[in-house]
Amino acid sequence: MAGVTATGMAGVPATFSSATAQIGGFLSKKPYAPPLWATHLSPMPCHTFSLGHFPTPIHKWNLPNLPEGTEVWIKRDDLSGMQLSGNKVRKLEFLMADAVAQGADCVITVGGIQSNHCRATAVAAKYLNLDCYLILRTSKLLVDKDPGLVVNLLVERLVGAHVDLVSKEEYGKIGSVALADLLKKRLLEEGRKPYVIPVGGSNSLGTWGYIEAIREIEQQIQQSSDVQFDDIVVACGSGGTIAGLALGSRLSSLNTKVHAFSVCDDPEYFYDYVQGLIDGLNSGFDSHDIVSMENAKGLGYAMNTAEELKFVKDIAASTGIVLDPVYSGKAVYGLLKDMAGNPAKWKGRKVLFIHTGGLLGLYDKADQLSSLAGSWRRMDLEDSVPRKDGTGKMF
Question: What are the positions of the active site (predicted)?
Fold first, then answer.
């Protein structure tokens, strides 16, 4: 199954038949036709924008110390783009189409100071000629200071996003919905036409992004015909990705067991939140029946132990896959701990891990990672090394 591709119309690989592969297809608006197995869900989106590079590849992942007969494969949604990268792109394809359809001239969204979702939203908005307003949560000590040009903030501010800072205490007291409504009210009074995107893009409309991802996986499996997955594993940070994966898996031919490792809040919170999302699509399912939630938040959201960071470094060094410390890093850490503690549960299983991106989050941990990163040295040169032609000159 190495180098898996999906198949499009008339046997043409979807890589070449997709809108993003055609000149002028990327960033274009297109009608949306859901998978046949999802046509009973409602409300159903009418259009999407092509914001990502799909299908993303699936390949075998040689993780160390797996139970006997267990295989882990990885779907590289971290390769869905560069500036927009990760799972947020799939949700934004639907959310941005809705914003444009409603005549919005700007979008509002909320997240942490290094939110991948906020960065992706800022880029997508600018692609579509919309202004973007970000409400970012930071510490009480930093809320009155310039947040700087670090990691996601650098991209957001380069593309002209408007940044409003709130403290974690204010965020906890008021909540993301009320904060977004307050900013929306102010923008309406200025004559603007704002569209609010929830934290992580996780509402029932955004859920369609990962319903569509299940169709993509289904097509990739059909094309390869030599692998069937028993389990799908993913990090859970706001609920929309796992809602789409769980619902799509249950409705489609995959019918895999879906596992979510929550990196903030507790599993019961996410069971309830996912229930709200799938109820919003009139699915008729109970979230407890379609997904298994595990707690992987550790010290807390975007906080890491030294052991977790060493794990991220060790996986990169042994497999070449760079995990982010906030989402996928914690999820894979939790997965391998569960495999070590319960090998019989995973023995002989074929597991598909969804890498949801977030590479930029590593830069925020650079100081903590400095002692773990690869070594360096000054090259030892002999006293006289004859120059060879054709190697270039430095002036």
Answer: 115
